[in-house]
Design a protein that fits this description.
The two termini are about 25 Å apart. By secondary structure, this protein is α+β, with helices and mostly antiparallel strands. It is about 25% helix and about 35% strand.
Length: about 190
């Protein structure tokens, strides 16, 4: 089973993120309309912030993860986290993007504490993250065989988006021909 740990915005926030995604598509279209076909856009229902990508795990591994997260849930001293919109960007960079993102800021840094705590808890069970955490939500992925330059979109989309979360989730990801389908396996309240 393919799994990850995430922060999931509420439905209203996902709608606002979708509006930013639409404006991003419009902006990309003004740069080069054919670039739109180079991107596989994330669906509104799937918007989330990955804290830890676990990947394929068997039932034994899943039980270890649940055990670690259950202990962790009792130790967390956070009541909620607030995120604000920083802008639209890309990994690794806008000149050669692979992933288009909604870049987010967490002013009090609680999300980094949570990320470090989850990393430590899962490391004890043999799961190690290969990426440094960066608060973002994926808006789209550039198809592997395409090369585009989106430097023209930097700082071009403004928004007053702000949202709060008070839990993190252990998620299941099923890859289907229509794209990834995510479902919550377990929710852990702060």
């Amino acid at each position: 089973m393919r799994t990850f740990i995430s922060l999931n915005p509420d439905i209203d926030t996902k709608k606002k993120i979708s509006e930013i995604q639409i404006r991003l598509k419009e902006k990309i279209s003004t740069i080069n309309k054919s670039f739109l076909d180079c991107v596989k856009w994330e669906s509104e229902i799937n918007f989330h912030m990955t804290l830890f990508f676990i990947g394929e795990v068997n039932e034994t591994g899943l039980n270890k993860i649940r055990s670690g997260l259950n202990i962790l849930e009792k130790e967390i001293k956070i009541s909620e986290m607030e995120f604000t919109y920083k802008g639209t960007d890309a990994f690794p960079k806008l000149k050669f993007p692979r992933v288009l993102i909604l870049d987010l800021t967490n002013k009090d840094g609680k999300v980094f504490e949570l990320s470090d705590t989850i990393n430590s808890a899962l490391k004890e069970h043999g799961f190690i993250s290969d990426k440094k955490f960066h608060p973002h939500i994926t808006l789209g992925r550039v198809k592997r065989d395409r090369k585009i330059d989106l430097t023209g979109i930097r700082d071009s989309i403004s928004s007053d988006l702000s949202f709060k979360v008070n839990s993190f989730c252990l998620m299941k990801s099923e890859l289907k021909s229509s794209g990834a389908e995510y479902s919550v396996l377990e929710e852990y309240k702060f």
